[in-house]
Amino acid sequence: MPRRTDLRRILLLGSGPIVIGQACEFDYSGTQACKALRDEGFEVVLVNSNPASIMTDPGMADRTYIEPLTPEVITRVIETERPDALLPTMGGQTALNLAVTLAENGTLERFGVELIGADLKAIQKAEDRLLFKQAMERIGVQVCPSGIASTLEESEAVGAAISSFPRIIRPAFTLGGSGGGIAYNPEEFAAICKSGLEASPVSQILIEQSLLGWKEFELEVMRDLADNVVIVCSIENLDPMGVHTGDSITVAPAQTLTDREYQRLRDQSIAIIREIGVATGGSNIQFAINPDNGDVVVIEMNPRVSRSSALASKATGFPIAKIAARLAVGYTLDEILNDITGKTPACFEPTIDYVVTKIPRFAFEKFRGSPAVLTTSMKSVGEAMAIGRCFEESFQKAMRSLETGLSGWGGDRPEPDLNDSEIDRLLRTPSPDRILSLRTAMLRGRSDEDIHRISSIDPWFLAKLRRIVEAEQNLLKGQQLHQLTADSLLELKQLGFSDRQIAWCTNSEELAVRQHRHGLGIRAVFKTVDTCAAEFASTTPYHYSTYERPLQRLDADGTLTTLPPANEVERSETERKVMILGGGPNRIGQGIEFDYCCCHASFAAQEQGIASVMVNSNPETVSTDYDTSDSLYFEPLTLEDVLNVIEAERPDGIVVQFGGQTPLKLAIPLMRWLDSDEGRSTGTRIWGTSPESIDRAEDREQFEAILSELEIRQPRHGLARSEAEARTVATRVGYPVVVRPSYVLGGRAMEVVFDQEELNRYMREAVQVEPDHPVLIDQYLENAIEVDVDALCDCESNVVIGGLMEHIEPAGIHSGDSACCLPAVSLGESALATIREWSRGLALALKVRGLINLQFAVQKTDDGEEVVYIIEANPRASRTVPFVAKATGQPLAKIATRLMAGETLQAVGLHQEPKPPLQAIKEAVLPFRRFPGADTVLGPEMRSTGEVMGFADNFGMAYAKAELGAGEALPTSGTVFLSTHDRDKSALVPVAARLIELGFDLIATSGTASALDQAGLNVRSVLKVHEGRPNIEDLIRSKQVQLVINTPIGRQAAHDDKYLRRAALDYAVPTVTTLAGARAAVEAISALQDQPTLSIHALQDVHAQCL
Fold first, then answer.
1. pTM listed for this prediction
2. pLDDT for the residue 766
3. What is the spatial distance between Cα 782 and Cα 987, in angstroms, rounded to a whole number?
């Protein structure tokens, strides 16, 4: 069928901020859809609240709205833009749920907007647990014995009918298993049913009999309007049922299915997609198979591009989202050409001659109080993917791609000392580290049968993992490096062993292993992802590394000639080339913002006629799309793997400043290797700010020398190598102080302590202070305003400030968790001038080429003078770069790339600091609901997973929109609960008075109520939990509180009030834990009362005002 001609303008909904269960894979799918639809001549209108995504770049869609994803806002956009159709299948569960709401409330019909990709009936049939169960019964596909409940009473009845434990609870219309879980007893059952009903927008849960121990599989399926159906990819979970598929190690293609079992899943998938009625596009269908008798049940279906679609697309080279977008506008699979081969149509099912392994990345250490146990509710914050010729190779490559310090599956550190009962417990309990416990069990002599009995992990995977252990024992144990033969090294490399693992086992150095390997002719070769197992030639340079035994040719004279391994990289020797190192898996502290910068580096290079080479291991991102760069290498970001790519491509330059800490920690080792004879032969250099300058900024002593020379003020500080020294330093600096280990990044284990007793407790519990592991102690600037600056510097020493942002939360809250505004709203001209002057001075002193991020704190003295302090300088891209670019219209990462390549700011056309035409606010999105037991109070350790942006003419409305986008909609009426530390009570008075003016009723704990009463304010006292009933927790749980303002200071105060913050979280009551945040919230509430209808702004219009 030809492309539809009755559609002109298509509305695309994004997925919003990065959250657990819905991450940057939907930026990838949305970006692909935008490109595909615009290539077909359609106008695209995009709505998404996430400024960090490539999808929300002004060039991706014709009209881009960075606005809250609510039915009211989408209705405003539809009213303004009048699209002909809405494509809801590219923005995860958020977009799907919005589409259902807009269809059901009549908005789409009222404005003549057609749902394409999946109609309302299909969405409801797949997402509504009861309708899906009935549909499966009609086509004879088995579902798990289960029941549907919409109330707690109904859930008890369903539970009684199932009778046995454990039971699995799955809420309808949710993402990542949010609100669900596994109940092992009646108390857990009641609690999870309650959270599931609250998480489901339609208050519906599915309660299933447990299938724990069954094998889990996914199939990615596509269908077109002519009823052609293709299976794009089969994926198998290494973990048995009971672990959310997003938290499980997964392998593609499925490894343990027999032909008969695969055909059965394939037939059922085709029957399911037809019965549900997904007429066009991709769907994800999940199955469970009983390993004892082969029984198959379907678990669920996602009638949209899913989290696994990105993985399947990268694993096969088959661009699911791009093809799904074309199918939605009328094409059929046989009419769409495969991008990679350029010859085969999309109705050819992909065939792959390699194995892909995905391993999730977790952040339980950020959420103390929440156990590191995996269930059906997703907890991972990112994932790494690797490609190899066999499972062992791809698995070990994926392990070293995780950025957790592992060089593979163990063999790079001392083995843990565990007893038998501890090993049993670790094997039985799904956790992020269970995969390492399998190795420990094998090394302790446990049989595969014993491990399978305890863990239910399939014997096939255990046999493959044992092969790795046996190779290590047989080929490496007790060996010196020079004793390793070519055959031994080849076998080890084919099983995925890294040079670092081999170095550890042979007591040698990583580069020595590399040199020895190369001397024996054992070198990595690069193969191509081509969708067709080399049946057709590939036109797309999408590569992965492996090791091959060389072929031999029988010559005419009867001699054998050894041929060099076939390398599929076609290197151009004429054009300039830059290699960009990505950020690896998403994690808290290093997210999609850095992938945005890497993509912009590639775009900028290509625009300037420089070929771009991308190296990354994250399957979720736009940077690992095969058409983002001229060449893509899906490889771990380790020294060994990066050097392999350098030798294959020989780029002119390498960019290490855009991928966060991952490539930065490679900068010095890379520089040293490039200065060696072997490195110089490649002709490659690191572009931009030199690694030495980056090191000077991160080394305390060197940085202090620069500050002293420039006469730049910094907070008092010291370094302690013992507990006694820590007490002495803290007394000299003056309490309160910020303490943190010197050897961790991203605010990990950082705390504000207010007295010596708290310092002693921190030294006992949080860190082990030693001469080699000192503790950093800094003056804590109370009530200071933090400021972020992103600046650019070129080779002619010109510096331009790209954006100067004022944080809303005070200094001491991690900058990644604080809201920030651009332009600044409360700072005086003198402080701003000092910040700009110091930023220029530091950029020049550090010889920056490209981007630098600087953080300052501004503290007011008693007489009102603003005193500026430098906190840190990072000569690299920061997480605020995309936000600044969206607010000002200046693509900082693109400009920085051109500066690194040798251009000047004058040549680029940026002469002065850009002025944003609207007030822009970035707000953090935090995942506390996923981590029961974790406290919601903000602190110096970063815990946010994503961000949203609010645009408006004034601060109040911009902040209100940012909070709405973050899922923390502020109330405009009702009751506000107040409870603050004694230090904050006087500053609370004007906030409370303003709330009364705005019509709110106030309740407070006795101490806070007394202080407000003395100030003449009308406030009702309420009991704390330990004081009796009814107390504040009762009021929150009975929905009598609409906003909580609670500012605990110090560890004990934070602990005392934790219960009420948790109750507020459970009942979705917005909670503010800083006074600065409370002041901003009051201003936002006032704006909402004055202007109930939110203003909306297209990014293209905003940027037109910047010119």
1. 0.93
2. 62
3. 13
